């Protein structure tokens, strides 16, 4: 074995500190520490044991270098020494009981250093040399310096995780607040119309002609439908989030579902100029007809609301056990920064068509339904040219 470094290169110590300061990924940082440590304190194996949630020591990181690459035995990683260091909370070294064996791999010299953050025990770092030389005080001090750097690395990573958790919680809180605000507004709007027109019809000091009564009742019906859709979306979103929405798979004809969806939108007085393009009648696939219809109606409904007057083209193609549905409109398109988020829960595109309603749940629900069918859904859009939704579904759920 080459001689152990007697005069430390301070640049290597600074380099180790730099790795700890600038590398966020634990394994990447430990790889850097191991590489730099090996230059100033030769070792064959290095293992980092950390406490898990049940306070058991587990190998979090292990690196074999030099002769250590030939030693795959579990004992070569110093598990017993790590347990002793954990019990005594102090640096310990072990030498082989005998050095008579010519096989260096059977003569390990081990050094275990506790990883302590103040009085809090985090784990143990173990260094192994096969065949010597023994660890001298200078090597032990250097190993303890390395251990302190690893503690700093773990602490830094823990702080980063806590910060990420706090930021996530803040985002979720903001989303919930925005959702409550949006839902409050969306509920007040139809309820306001229903209450207003109902009160007007019930006025005892005024008589309304039949045409006016019919107009008021139609508005009440439309707003009731809007309210019902809103409530159903909220319930569906909650069921999907909790995994309680079950799919009733059966053979379905997608072309029939799409034609029915278009007809229902026409009956809802939504203007939709849709053209269904099918090269050959598609064979049935396995799916939940009511949920797939919900997906198609949502996308077509959005096209009618957000791209009024635009032509909508729908195509169905089947190949290699999969069915691809493309729904393309020729509307204003979706901005790129919004396109990446349209399937997120509660997200609504800013500056949408004035007077349109929505909670940002429709496309989120569509995505969850398609995923429940083991399929995929995505969108592409060009400003001024329109938006295309691509849905891919497996023909058979049993094949998934």
Task: Tell me what the structure shows.
- The chain has 400 residues and is of the alpha+beta class.
- The chain has 3 domains: 10-159, Beta-Lactamase (2-Layer Sandwich), CATH 3.30.450.40; 166-228, Helix Hairpins (Orthogonal Bundle); 250-399, Histidine kinase-like ATPase, C-terminal domain (Heat Shock Protein 90, 2-Layer Sandwich).
- It is 46% helix and 21% strand.
- It has 9 helices and 12 strands.
- It has helices at residues 10-22, 26-40, 79-88, 137-201, 210-242, 254-267, 289-306, 336-339, 362-372; strands spanning 45-51, 57-64, 92-94, 108-117, 120-130, 250-252, 273-278, 285-287, 311-319, 322-329, 376-382, 386-394.
- The strands form 3 sheets. A 5-stranded antiparallel sheet has the order 2-1-5-4-3, with helices on both faces. A 5-stranded mixed sheet has the order 7-9-10-12-11. The protein has a two-stranded antiparallel sheet with strand order 6-8.
- Strand 11 (376-382) and strand 12 form a beta hairpin.
- Helix 4 (137-201) runs antiparallel to helix 5.
- Residues 1-7 and 71-75 have low confidence and may be disordered.
């Amino acid at each position: 074995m080459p001689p152990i470094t007697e005069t430390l290169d301070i640049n290597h110590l600074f380099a180790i500190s730099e790795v700890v300061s600038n590398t966020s990924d634990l394994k990447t940082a430990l790889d850097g520490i191991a590489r730099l440590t090996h230059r100033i304190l030769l070792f064959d194996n290095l293992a980092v044991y950390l406490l898990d949630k049940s306070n058991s020591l587990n190998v979090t990181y292990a690196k074999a270098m030099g002769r250590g690459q030939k030693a795959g035995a579990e004992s070569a990683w110093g598990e017993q020494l790590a347990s002793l260091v954990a019990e005594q909370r102090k640096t310990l070294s072990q030498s082989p009981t005998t050095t008579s064996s010519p096989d260096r791999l059977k003569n390990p010299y081990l050094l275990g250093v506790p990883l302590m953050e103040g009085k809090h025990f985090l784990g143990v770092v173990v260094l192994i040399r096969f065949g010597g030389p023994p660890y001298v005080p200078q090597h032990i001090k250097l190993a303890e310096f390395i251990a302190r750097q690893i503690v700093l690395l773990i602490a830094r990573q823990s702080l980063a995780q806590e910060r990420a958790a706090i930021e996530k919680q803040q985002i979720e809180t903001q989303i919930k607040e925005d959702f409550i605000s949006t839902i409050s507004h969306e509920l007040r709007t139809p309820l306001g119309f229903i209450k207003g027109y109902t009160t007007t019809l019930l006025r005892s000091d005024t008589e309304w002609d039949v045409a006016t009564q019919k107009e008021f009742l139609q508005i009440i019906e439309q707003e009731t439908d809007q309210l019902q859709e809103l409530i159903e979306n909220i319930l569906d979103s909650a069921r999907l989030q909790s995994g309680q929405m079950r799919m009733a798979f059966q053979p379905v004809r997608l072309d029939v579902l799409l034609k029915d969806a278009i007809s229902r939108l026409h009956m809802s007085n939504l203007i939709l100029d849709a053209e269904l393009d099918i090269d050959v009648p598609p064979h049935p696939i396995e799916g939940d007809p009511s949920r797939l219809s919900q997906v198609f109606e949502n996308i077509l409904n959005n096209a009618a609301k957000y791209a009024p007057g635009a032509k909508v083209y729908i195509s169905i193609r089947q190949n290699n056990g999969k069915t691809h549905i493309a729904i393309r409109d020729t509307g204003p398109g979706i901005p790129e920064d919004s396109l990446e988020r349209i399937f997120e829960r509660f997200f609504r595109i800013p500056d949408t068509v004035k007077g349109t309603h929505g909670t940002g749940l429709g496309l989120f629900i569509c995505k969850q339904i398609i995923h429940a069918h083991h399929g995929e859904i995505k969108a592409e859009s060009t400003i001024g040219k329109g938006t295309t939704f691509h849905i891919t579904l497996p023909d058979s759920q049993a094949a998934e």
